[in-house]
Amino acid sequence: MKFETLTVHSGHQRQGGILPSSPPIERAASWAFDAMADLDAVFEDPSSGYDYGRDNMPTPALLEEAISALQGGGRTQVFATGMAAIAAVLATAGSGRRVLAAPDLYGATYAMLNAWLPESGGEVRFVSAQDHEAVRDALQNWRPHLLVVETLSNPLVKVSDLGWLVEQARSAGCKTLVDNTFASPYLCRPLELGADYVVESLTKYLNGHGDVLGGSVTVNDDESYTALNLHRKRFGATLDPQAAWLTLRGIRTLALRLHQQCSNALVLAEFLSGHPAVATIYYPGLDSHPGHETAARLFGGRGYGGVLAFDLDAGTRAAAWAVMERLQIAWRAATLGDVATLVAYPAHASHRALTVEQRQAIGIGDGLIRVSVGIEDPDDIIDDFAQALDD
Fold this sequence. Notes:
Blueprint: H1 3-9, H2 36-44, H3 58-70, E1 75-79, H4 82-94, E2 98-101, H5 107-119, E3 123-126, H6 132-141, E4 146-150, H7 162-171, E5 175-179, H8 184-187, E6 197-201, H9 202-206, E7 215-219, H10 222-235, H11 241-251, H12 254-273, E8 278-282, H13 292-299, E9 307-312, H14 317-326, E10 331-332, E11 342-344, H15 356-361, E12 368-372, H16 378-390
Parallel strand pairs: 2-3, 2-4, 4-5, 5-6, 10-11
Antiparallel strand pairs: 1-7, 6-7, 8-9, 9-12, 11-12
């Protein structure tokens, strides 16, 4: 089936000869068995049934099936948050080991790598995913165990050449974790490019309606799947059934939403690129973006994502905050991927945990604004930013 069809038909469950139009929400904390042998069999093989909700539940299991279908295969584990998903990969594949990572990751991921990983006995080095010579050198000479990159970086939407990165990592005996949140499976399916771990923040595009926290990890091999499952049990990072159901409902319109958001983002990026108050615009859909050709190849013409960022010519926090506060349609919020247009101030939101020097080193200045473009009429979006910038 084509992707658009998969979004509609994945994650349903037949009940006998009947297919409900919406999957059931099962909120049981535990399941009782008539025969002890049956209960013991589930303890032995959790995939054969359900016994305790922290281990597995039916509605999240349906979501896992749906995400695996959207990712083009593999097996998926869902978690209570996106950071819980990333932590699970780092705990099972990075703890006590060498991790090579792009420096311009989501701030919480960067902080986890920089602080928690060394505490667990691991080492981390940061190398730009766009600097292929430096990446190749680090892989061949430092010999890391795990490479961590984002398909589109947060917040400057740099594009990772995933096929090349995965190939280089594999030849060096290194596994690859790809945070695919900004692209979603609509634009990119890293598992098909050979990635070992594909992380999605369900909070963002897969749910898409601002009412869920969740994360997922999709893998291709049974060993990694089993390790992630055991980690989730031990640390209790289970996704709630209601959140799973809301994400399943959100997935039904994923293709429609992303199509509109990508289209709107390109229109807004073109407008901002010609505005005198804007110094620099970061969006891979523009020909001027250094990752434009890579994004066109990687995303197959579907679009270039719904997130962009721009630096104000004034370059100050006061100027950035003033523009953000004058916006009337766009909401000031610390997230992305919603149906509404959202603006964030990365220096004090997603990358607040970084020092000023660390932020400056990866290009996050005081005048930077990140925009997650929604599905509103593009003329209204442009009018809103025009009046905010022209005031």
